[in-house]
Write a structure and sequence with these properties.
Elements lengths: L4 H24 L1 H11 L8 H21 L3 H16 L3 H8 L18
Helix pairs in contact: 1-2, 1-3, 2-3, 3-4
């Protein structure tokens, strides 16, 4: 994607201000920051209740680290992973298939990549 430098800098600056603002809220009131993030990500309702808090906490931690470093890729990777996890939980048969129980006979040993012997 090509973009004028001026536009990129404006977008980057706005993102940093928004993320820093959320970081300030998180430092003052972590629970409120987690609630705000949960409202922004409505797909969290698809996660089992016992995993929603874990997802929000991980995402907020990654976002705050991104604010500090300017590196947001871990946040985006984790956001995508949690979103896909939530999408899986919309299909009970898929959840059952992925959570087991698993039979030992269903597994097979594989060689380590690059292992010659």
């Amino acid at each position: 994607m090509l973009m004028r430098d001026e536009r990129y800098r404006a977008m980057d600056g706005a993102l940093r201000i928004a993320a820093r603002s959320l970081a300030l809220v998180a430092k003052a009131n972590r629970v409120m920051a987690e609630e705000v993030l949960a409202v922004e990500l409505p797909w969290l309702v698809w996660l089992p209740p016992e995993h929603r808090g874990e997802a929000v906490t991980e995402l907020l931690d990654d976002l705050l680290a991104g604010v500090d470093t300017g590196y947001y890729l871990p946040f985006m990777r984790n956001l995508i992973a949690w979103k896909h996890t939530a999408e899986i939980h919309t299909d009970p048969s898929l959840v059952a298939q992925l959570t087991g129980p698993f039979q030992r006979a269903e597994f097979s040993e594989v060689q380590r990549p690059g292992n010659t012997g």
